[in-house]
Write a structure and sequence with these properties.
- By secondary structure, this protein is of the alpha/beta class.
- It has a single domain, classed as Amidase signature (AS) enzymes.
- Helix content is 35%, strand content 13%.
- An 11-stranded mixed beta sheet has the order 1-3-2-4-6-5-10-11-9-7-8, sandwiched between helices.
- α2 links the parallel β2 and β3.
- It is globular and about 70 Å long.
- The protein starts with 5 loop residues before the first helix and ends in a 7-residue tail after the last helix.
- It binds glutamine (GLN).
- The site of glutamine has 14 residues, from β4.
Length: 452
């Protein structure tokens, strides 16, 4: 066995030094870290950390839950194979909310990750460990999963890029399912270019995921240098209710940049976006209740009783799942029950179509949509913990895109007056990630936002 290159040794040491951030929960054994093939590829020599709900062969995977204690992944997720064949070096796994259900990582069995800008604040979630790790320089890049904002919102709270690709763009094979019609794996990085490199590496059709799209992946050059958009829409009516004034001024800064570049800024209407949060929670809880049925102590999950089969299910699930996951399984089961299915599930499916149509209509007249990623700066650890509704509302601006399936990126947008990072969201038409990425690269190169 050859020793790891010094740069990678240093990276592993830094992860140890910063263990108080609680964002990396497991590093790989040095002998398992593969640097073979790092001399070429889009990710040549780049270090990566992976959210703990994406399978890496031979490594533990817990989804930050007690229920998966002792389980080892028997295979690689497709994204892991693709990262390795592009020369990326995977160092370990990151903290997240249990089964990706949450907005802060406070619902993790490992305890909350801490924001590198202020340790008393959350990283956002659910992929908070990945966002914080990249912000703190523990890896060049990271992967998260985004069901309703779990890549974009922590990216905003930690001041890094975080992309949710178009639904179907990136294979979900090997990602532990939360809500399958929403889940997408997405990259985190410190620059638009690194975000684009990781995106093109993991994207593309995979016969192992039936929902994976056959559309060809844009080449890296297009993601870096596609022509600038002609017009950008701002959904002002949707934002009217309680837009944070500091985020409003970030939007103004970007508008001025667009003016100098000859990009027109117009109003767009997303008339049904106001129903997105309730629609999302009905549909995702229903899907989660079905997806998580497999963690029963027989098929998957730590077995807690041998008494009889009923007790085995009861105890394995009661002891294995945390409170938020239980809340969602119970509400999801209720939503799907025969007496309420039409009133909740079927109705929410119809509203989802209306929200989708809002985006299809909007993209007839604009190339991108601009809005904040999260409604506030990173909140304090513990602040929203007793109030699930307040927690759910932190995804107000990310959820509509998840229902529609369109791609969306958090771009770092300077800081709040408190010194915490601010983020803005750029949304593109279906499969138009290159428009989002190349525009954000121009914003980065022009230094539109300041960080002092
Ligand atoms: N915070 C949202 C939720 O709790 C989104 C989570 C996610 O995208 N995985 O469902």
């Amino acid at each position: 066995m050859t020793a790891l290159p010094e740069s990678i040794q240093n990276q592993l040491e830094l992860i140890q030094e910063k263990s108080d951030l609680n964002c990396v929960i497991r590093t790989r054994k040095e002998s398992d870290i593969s640097t073979a093939g790092t001399s070429s590829g889009f990710l040549s020599g780049k270090t990566l950390l992976i959210k703990d709900n994406i399978s890496i062969k031979g490594e533990a995977i817990t989804c930050a839950s007690k229920v998966l204690e002792g389980y080892t992944s028997p295979y690689n997720a497709t994204v892991i194979d693709r990262i390795e064949s592009e020369g990326g070096v995977i160092l370990g796994q990151t903290n997240c909310d249990e089964f990706a259900m949450g907005s802060s990582t406070e619902y993790s069995v490992f305890g909350s990750a801490k924001n590198p800008f202020d340790a008393a604040r959350v990283t956002g979630g659910s992929s908070g460990g990945s966002a914080a790790a990249v912000a703190a320089g523990l890896a060049d890049m990271a992967l998260g999963s985004d069901t309703g904002g779990s890549v974009r919102q922590p990216a905003a709270f930690c001041g890094v890029y975080g992309l949710k690709p178009t639904y179907g763009r990136v294979s979900r094979y090997g990602l532990v399912a939360f809500a399958s019609s929403f889940d997408q794996i997405g990259p985190f990085a410190k620059t638009a270019e690194d975000t684009a490199s990781l995106f093109v590496s993991i994207a593309g059709h995979d016969p192992k995921d039936a929902t994976s799209s056959k559309k060809s992946v844009p080449n890296l050059q297009d993601c870096l240098d596609a022509p600038l958009p002609k017009s950008i829409g701002i959904p002002r009516a949707f934002l009217k209710k309680g837009l944070n004034p500091e985020l409003a001024s970030k939007i103004n800064e970007l508008e001025s940049f667009c003016e100098t570049e000859g990009i027109s800024i117009v109003d767009v209407d997303l008339p049904h976006a106001q129903y997105a949060v309730s629609t999302y929670y009905i549909l995702t809880m229903a899907e989660a209740s079905s997806n998580l049925a497999r963690f029963d102590g027989v098929r998957y999950g730590a077995r807690k009783s041998d008494e009889n089969v009923q007790e085995l299910y009861n105890q394995s699930r009661s002891e294995g799942f945390g409170p938020e996951v239980k809340r969602r399984i119970m509400l999801g089961t209720y939503i799907l029950s025969s007496g309420y299915y039409d009133a909740y599930y079927a109705k929410a499916q119809k509203v989802r179509q209306l929200i989708k149509k809002d985006f299809v209509d909007a993209f007839e007249s604009v190339d991108l949509i601009l809005l904040p990623t999260a409604p506030t700066e990173a909140f304090k650890i513990g602040e929203n913990l007793d109030d699930p509704l307040a927690m759910y509302l932190s995804d107000l601006f990310t959820i509509p895109m998840s229902l529609a399936g369109v791609p969306a990126l958090n771009i770092p947008a300077g800081k709040f007056s408190s010194g915490l990072p601010a983020g803005l969201q750029l949304v593109g038409n279906y499969f138009k990630e290159e428009t989002i990425l190349s525009f954000s690269r121009r914003v980065e190169q022009a230094r539109v936002f300041t960080y002092d």
